[in-house]
Amino acid sequence: MEIDKVSITKLEKRYSIAKSVLYDRMNALGIKPEKIGNRSYLSGEQLQLLDELQEHMKSGGSLAMFADRISKQTAEQSNMMVAGQTTEQSTEQSALLRIVTASLLDRQPAPTTLDPFENRRKLKEIAEEGWHISTSELLPLLGLKSIPPLDDHNRFTRMGFVFWKVGKVGREYEWRITKVQS
Length: 182
What we know:
By secondary structure, this protein is of the alpha+beta class. The chain is 49% helix and 19% strand.
């Protein structure tokens, strides 16, 4: 059974996540919803990609790792097609490959220089804007694989910032960031 369109509202409930987290995932994967009236919808192929991401994250993976894996698979598939090699793929995999390839072409190229302070600037902006971010978004910014032990106030300090555990969205904790006061 192929699904034509699924509304964003249904996906929030399906994955038990906030709309902002859903849009973060969609942006990372280059998924652009189709707008019909006041509502946004995803295609069956886009839904399949988000379902795969959900399973990946349930098993302990991160959004960044999944997006990286998809990007590498797409590049490998593209190289194989360019070289004239054939691969046996199901129709669904081919459709998924086309969506991911198209979305990757829409992305900006990665910066060529590594700025050691870029993550600190991102953390500062998040703190100043008062945004909350999920654990899977926070860990790469800190260069960590897991959250360090928390103190009695459900917080930890790193890189001149205090990270406060403020709640849970779906299966992930949500964090508020503040600058360390001198």
